[in-house]
Amino acid sequence: MFPFDRLRSGPSASSDCRCDASFETQPGGETTVLSVDADGCPGGGDLGAAACRATVVGALAAGDAGVVRCVRDGLVSRYDGAATALLLAAGRFVERVAVYDEALAGRARRDPLAAAREATGRAGAVSRVAAETGLAEAAAAVGSYDDLGARVGPAVAGVRFERAPPTDASLRERRDLDAGPTVRVYETPEGPRYHLTPVEATLSRAATAALAAAHGRLADGASPAEAVQGVADESLPVAALADVLRKHTAGAGLLEDLFADPTVTDAFVTAPAAENPVRVVAGDERMRTNAWLTATGAAALGSRLRRESGRAFSRASPTLDATLPVRGERVRVAGVTDPASDGPGFAVRGDARESWTLPALVANETISAAAAACCSLAVERAAAGLVAGPRGAGKTTLLGALLWELPAATRTVVVEDTPELPVDALRDAGRDVQPLRATTGDGPAVTPERALRTALRLGEGALVVGEVRGEEAATLYEAMRVGATGSTVLGTVHGDGPGAVRERVVTDLGVPPSSFASTDMLVALSPPPDRGLASLVEVRSTDDGPAFEPLYGRRGDPTGVVDRGNSRLVAALAGPDEEYAAVRAALDRRATHLGRLAETGRTTPDEVTAAYRERGRSAAR
User: Fold this and answer.
1) Could you state, in order of their start, the residue ranges of all structural domains in the chain?
2) Dist. CA 419–CA 473, nearest whole Å
3) pLDDT at residue 158 above 70?
4) CA–CA separation, 322 vs 332, rounded Å?
5) Are 598 and 394 in contact (CB under 8 A)?
6) CA distances from 259 to 168, 283, 360, 480, 540 (A)
7) Rounded Cα distance, 481 and 38, in Å
8) Which of 134, 158, 189, 538 is the most exposed place for a label (fewest CB within 10 A)?
């Protein structure tokens, strides 16, 4: 604490304001905060009002601060940037101009904008002081007190929101989400802006005060619901308050509100969190939001990730890849912290384990029915395949969909670092799926290479590797080359196209070219925002090494190789007594079936599983 503990008395205070102001240093000692306790003040610490503004400017005449934080009845209003620059400049101006014009100094406490206009219109010392203290420049950056732009949120939450819409903005759309928040998307000169109004932003002053009181009861072991019931009367929205308290203490906080919006696929918290707005990808558009995590909120998210993953996230281990439950679903979070970044920062991706199916991907035009049929038959008949693409292309989504194409009786071993594939959904459908946790970091797990060797000893069946990216690649390809799994082998690999994949696997990961040629098919996906199938190729062994033959192009348009009878993959899928033409016919029937499911909307795992059973019974007859 700074020595200016109480600043109500003296020339800085206003008779209409009963705020208490004190200077504090944030953790790390880099930013000084003027903390204003506005409980009991008629103005509530609103710096848009002259009385409370006079108290704050008076305090800043005695000391500097980078942030002004006002707290009343459990609600925090944070002012920084242009707002704090104006108030701080006004404080400096008050201190220096008083020797020339005491009346103007008094006016600057209550109305810095008017004082700046008067000072810059005068000649001599007063005008010079306005320039030297920065008041003239700061006032020019703030058009009115409505532009001070406080970011507001409950004290129990690690997030603050800009309540006012952006300047020079037009409303594009408004949506009320089932979970309670309201979303508005504005068009601004800088691009679209995502404006979130959570339930807590609509609470009355009494409800916010009850929320703060309930938070204090959690330390005694009360649940959020019990804590709220202990302090709130029947006039308050008890259920809503309990959910807000749960969200910000036991839940995922802001992430719960963002991912309640089905259009949001990604969220980004850039370090230092308190100085950067959260950004989202919504409907394939990257947008700034009106939400800002506090330093405490960012640290709390890092702690939550440590607890959920069982892995370190600290200066000694400053990166983390984990999943986090958000209202019954899971999101993937990549985290970074000191010393790799200036405090905690996060990239969050929506539920990667959503159970997509091939018919669903056909329905949304990610892949054509014909290309999907080729993937389906190859997976069913024990092919070795890779799904490739850059970050965000949907590799894991397609791989998860392919798992539903495995014969229902197939035992499947899934090796993943961060759980993303729909293992639980497959098990719920009666599939025999054994997950293995692998990691290159800290925690109770084994390396990917050791996990893969363990998987090969767990019995014949399908082998699925969430991402091929390290020493395990050589082990995987050796198993593929000698047929050690006895069934389908699938995985994802980072690479923008077949050539890039070969370079990564052979050159970067050290897999011999002859082993890489054991790959039967490679499914390459386009980068966002386009996404979707870029090409489906078969891998051929030639005297010059592995080569690629495209079977389907963009979105799954056939190249003619299959129809001309020249596909190595189709030939390899034929049974002992089956001709190439019979496999072609099977592909046609499979494409028709997948297309019909997509057209009729039968795309959920349960519906697809039932449809495949019906297909099997029809084939048996």
Assistant:
1) 20-149, 156-202+251-349, 358-620
2) 19
3) yes
4) 6
5) no
6) 27, 12, 21, 39, 43
7) 72
8) 189
pLDDT in tens, 45-87: 888 889 999 999 999 988 888 889 999 999 999 988 888 899 9
| Strand blocks (E) in 117-158 | 151-154
Q: Can you tell me the distance from the alpha carbon of 245 to that of 600, in angstroms, rounded to the nearest whole number?
A: 43
CATH class of 156-202+251-349: alpha beta
What distance in Å separates the CA atoms of residue 110 and residue 118, rounded to the nearest whole number?
14
Question: What tens digit of pLDDT does each residue of 532-590 get?
Answer: 999 999 999 898 889 999 999 987 899 999 999 999 999 999 999 999 999 999 999 99
Tokens of 507: 């050159």
Structure token pair of residue 524: 């390459």
**Mean pLDDT value across residues 267-288:** 93
Q: How far apart, in Å, are the Cα atoms of 65 and each of 26, 58, 435, 498?
A: 11, 12, 52, 55
Residues in the chain: 621
The CA radius of gyration of the chain, in Å to the nearest whole number, is: 31
Tokens of 88: 């701080």
**Residue written as token pair 């929101």:** 161
* Amino acid at residue number 277: P
Contact 337, 345 (CB under 8 A): yes
Q: How far apart are CA 294 and CA 5, in angstroms?
A: 23
The one-letter amino acid at 284: D
Helices (H) and strands (E) in the chain, counts: 22, 24
CATH fold label, 358-620: Rossmann fold (3.40.50)
Identify the CA nearest to 586 among candidates 557, 562, 617.
Answer: 562
